[in-house]
Queue: 2 jobs
Job 1
Amino acid sequence: MALNNTYDARPAQQETAVGAGVQILLLALLGTAIGMGPAGWVTGLVFAIATWAVLSRALHRSRLSTFGAANRVTLGRATLVGGVTALVADSFESAPPVSVLVGLTAVALVLDGVDGKVARRTGTSTALGARFDMEVDAFLILVLSVYVSMSLGPWVLLIGGMRYAFVAAARLAPWLNAPLPPSTARKTVAALQGILLLLAGADLLPYAGDLGVVLLALGLLVWSFGRDVLWLWRRSRMRAMVAAEVDEVLEASVGDVLVEATRAA
């Protein structure tokens, strides 16, 4: 009896298409409510199409036949991030209502703590889901740093760009690609970035307060990345030392064998 190993990606990819449709619906609602301009529309549509394309490709490569409840939560969060991205792009032409931007961002940040719990409780944790969650988080922080930089200066972009700079550096230094041990501190610092940037962009504090909040976020992020890079560097050095010692032992062993062989001859 022949086994059917045919992989059908359509059920999972249909959900990504639905996500893109919901993204466009959210843009329409925002456009109707606040009169969003061309920059916001174009940016939001590009985000929706890019998310659908990248996620569909990732699903095909991972060969997942079902999308999963946790990924649905992350997709909903990505939809909100798309709305925030459109509003930030629109803010270069006209200032959107801060309450709308804060509301969408706040819900996205709250949902950040939901998808992981859903994945663990349903036993549906996957590498794709973890990567999807991480990329949505990173992009939201980047977008928020762009928004806050308009009032505090371009240096704020260091917060949003640090993770992408780390990824780029890993292409030149492969030892940065080694897996890191789990860290509650790292997760806490990552979660605080969105909260602190949202607070700085909510127009609740005076300039000095916003500046202090963002400097705190940047300081925590530099400490977190610095600690991880130092751990990875030490690990790479240790592995290199172990490899060198193994090579020395092997060379000595081969030399001893050759000497014994010569004597025997």
Job 2
Amino acid sequence: MEMHKFKVLAETGIMSRPATRLVMAAQEFKSDIKLTYNDHTVNLKSIMGVMSLGVPQDSYVEISASGEDEREAMVGIDTYLEKEGIVEQVQESADA
């Protein structure tokens, strides 16, 4: 399983247009992709699930991928999110 932590930069958070485009990006992969915010996890391929989280700006989320193309899925989603300015990846400390 691949997992990355992000800080949400988008002024609207992960709602509306950013949520829709993120779901579309996730649907390109076969892996099971999840979005976690405040201990709630949803399928990243479900717009209703993503919107139900109500992720605001300056919050932290985790995205995980599990499956045959999990690495490619994470690279693709990371690239999309950072290119669009929706999030920045949070580097985990060596002590964590």
